Hints:
Elements: H1 7-12, E1 24-29, E2 40-48, H2 49-52, E3 64-65, H3 67-70, E4 75-84, H4 91-108, E5 110-120, H5 128-138, E6 147-148, H6 166-172, H7 175-182, E7 186-194, E8 199-207, H8 213-228
Amino acid sequence: MDAIPTVEMKALRSDFDSFDQVCDHLLVICKDRTDLRCGVVGTYRILRSSVAAQSQGFYSANEFDLGPLLDVQGEIMELGRSCVDSDHRNRPTMQLLWQAIAAYVHHYQIEVLFGCASLPGIAPAALKLPLSYLYHHHLAPKEIRPKAVEARYVDLNALPKDSIDFRAAWKALPPLIKGYLRLGGFVGDGAVVDPQFNTTDVSIIVKTNLITEKYFRHYERSAHWSSDR
């Protein structure tokens, strides 16, 4: 998607950074995909606050002031590096990832999930419809609302609320952001342009108590069943 790799990344044909060593990694593996390294077709990277506090903090702190989230009582966790092979971008793959996330949330008693989510392109003016929609309809409560760092802050509120075409704005959102919003997710204050990845990033926050217990019970039960198999 037009991301610009470092020389080392290009040589290894792999995306990596210093957070990889301290994060937990969820992997979806397809045994039939012998053309892929270890058959990995889906990934998520997880960093818990108790681990981040002992290392280099959270990845998204490079783009957002996470102060309000750090004041949350209990464990919080950052989700990132969501990536699914183009041939496996389907419901079963996403179910496997979220089964594992649901079980992880329950095991570590996570209070809040958060991370960066991206819209394609580095021209915020071209994204003013979906960004304004997020601001007017999904802004996080102040007590848990991260804010884009001042030097990179892009105002989400580019259009008045009554001028927004709801259907067009929703259609313009990437599937991953729609997924978080369906879970009851919010966005932080402001966006950040990331030239290396050719994206405009927003902060996503999901309070786990806003996700129905039935939802988590379903995915946790499925995850344990899968592991027993």
